[in-house]
C-alpha cells in the first residue's frame, strides 16, 4: 500500500507564521490527510515533503463546528478557528492567533454571490476594516482550489495527490497543499480546514 505518512515519528517544526516562510524560491508541498492521528477523532494530519509531521487538527467531538485548533506537530495551538454565529446568508469564520479569542487575524466568508460561481470564499482582515486579502476559487469537492491575493497571484493551491503506484486511487481524503514562498502555510492550512467546514 502507498505510504501516506512515510516518517510519522519525525516532528518537523512548522514554518513560521509571520508570512515570510523562507528564502527558498520553490513552493512548499504538503501532504494533507483528512484523518486524525488520534483514535475516534475527526481532523487532519499534514506532512512535509520529507514525511515529517507538520500540522494536525484533532476534533474530539465529531460535528463540532464551533471551535477548531490548528496545531503544530507537538500539539501547540497555532491558530484557532471560530464560527461566528450571526443571522446572515453567508457563513463567517474568524481566525485567531494561538488560543486567543480577541483581535481576529482573518475573517473568512463563504461566497453567496450566484453570479460569481468560481469563487468559493473570501479572506479579509478585520484589522484593516475587512479589506479583501485573498479569494479562493475552484472546487473543494474535487480538491482543485487556488488561493489568489489582491493582485491575482496564486499563493496556494489544493491539488489531488497522485499515487506512486499505478492503479491506486487515494480518493479525496489525501491531497496536496502547495504553498508559494512568502505565503503563510498555517493560513493555507486554515483555509483548507474552513473549506472542509463550508463544503
Automatic annotation (TrEMBL):
UniProt-listed InterPro entries: LOR (IPR007612), LOR_sf (IPR038595), Tubby-like_C (IPR025659)
Segments of this protein annotated with the region Disordered: 1-21
Entry superkingdom: Eukaryota
Family: Belongs to the LOR family.
PANTHER family: PROTEIN LURP-ONE-RELATED 8 (PTHR31087:SF22), PTHR31087
Name of the protein this chain belongs to: Protein LURP-one-related 8
Amino acid at each position: 500500500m502507498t505510504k501516506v505518512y512515510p516518517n510519522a515519528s519525525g516532528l518537523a517544526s512548522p514554518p513560521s507564521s509571520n508570512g515570510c516562510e523562507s528564502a527558498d524560491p520553490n513552493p512548499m508541498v504538503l501532504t494533507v490527510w483528512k484523518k486524525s492521528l488520534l483514535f475516534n477523532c475527526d481532523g487532519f494530519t499534514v506532512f512535509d515533503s520529507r514525511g515529517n509531521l507538520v500540522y494536525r487538527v484533532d476534533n474530539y467531538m465529531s460535528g463540532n463546528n464551533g471551535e477548531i485548533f490548528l496545531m503544530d506537530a507537538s500539539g501547540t495551538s497555532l491558530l484557532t478557528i471560530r464560527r461566528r454565529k450571526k443571522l446572515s446568508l453567508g457563513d463567517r469564520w474568524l481566525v485567531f492567533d494561538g488560543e486567543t479569542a480577541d483581535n481576529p487575524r482573518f475573517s473568512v466568508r463563504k461566497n453567496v454571490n450566484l453570479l460569481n460561481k468560481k469563487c468559493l470564499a473570501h479572506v479579509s482582515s478585520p484589522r484593516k476594516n475587512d479589506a479583501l486579502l485573498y479569494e479562493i476559487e475552484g472546487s473543494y469537492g474535487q480538491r482543485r482550489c487556488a488561493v489568489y491575493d489582491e493582485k491575482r497571484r496564486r499563493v496556494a493551491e489544493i491539488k489531488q495527490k497522485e499515487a506512486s503506484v499505478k492503479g491506486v486511487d487515494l480518493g479525496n481524503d489525501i491531497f496536496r497543499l502547495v504553498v508559494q514562498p512568502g505565503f503563510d502555510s498555517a493560513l493555507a492550512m486554515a483555509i483548507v480546514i474552513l473549506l472542509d467546514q463550508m463544503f
